[in-house]
Amino acid sequence: MPPVPPWLRVQAGPRLERGCSHRSWTLEQDWPVSLENVLRLRNSRTGSYAEVKPARPGLLRVCAHVPEATRESGVTALRVLLVADLVARVAELGHLQALTVLVTADESAERMSELEPAAGALGIHPPAGRARSGNAPALLGGPADVHVISNGDDKIDDQGGVVTRVGDARMRQTGARGQGTADPLLDREHDPLTVRFAMLSFPVHQAAELTGDVLADASETAGGWRRWVARWSESPSRPVPPDLSEAVRAAFRDLDTPSAIALLRGLVHDDSVPSGAKFETFIYTDRILGLELPRDIGKPV
What we know:
Number of helices: 10
Shape: globular
């Protein structure tokens, strides 16, 4: 695996959970206490969407299958872990415990020492453990309910559970001679959460080309949202309109992060929605997107 770029070696800031404890959490209060009608994933075994149904009530077991190390597999490996993180976050909002195991054919200490800190910088919750292919059920306490795998991975020993494929992720920049470089950003720095946002802007099953333009847009948008959230935090709390609440759930039901992002983009300047309701929606949605949108609250404008 190539060295982890410098921009991923910098740990992200502290996670901010419910930054304003006086507010109502209307979306979370309405979320069902199960994954029924809450999470569907496109099952690579059948080619269609399947509802995730944990074998053990109250516990979702997830295997994140990291691709074998190649020159360009590092960013794809992080995207696999990011999708597994999204699955776990949705489960936790459904009041389930999520248990994730990192599965890899190359469990070298060097590779893990690079991959796991990089994942942490992207705001990805650490796995409960590591396992080689076939050994994950022992760590999980049973068969996996969900397997998250890269596009070229066909080595799934466990025959149970939903298998969802993640498109390759590539980060390229233009070199001095106009050539695309395969090992991007080794000489540049980006906020790791900008990279997370950029990955979330692509459908899970499609390839993610993280160009300079895509990263710049992600950085600008996230920065703008944090400033808006800080401003809205000073407004009285308001309930989220039912149609908006359902749109948020529908997006996350299919792990459709691009639709969730598009919803937030449109919501910023929607004068028909009170500022307090915008705040509630952005903070709640960030529980899954993981962009630390509340982190500018209380800072000087």
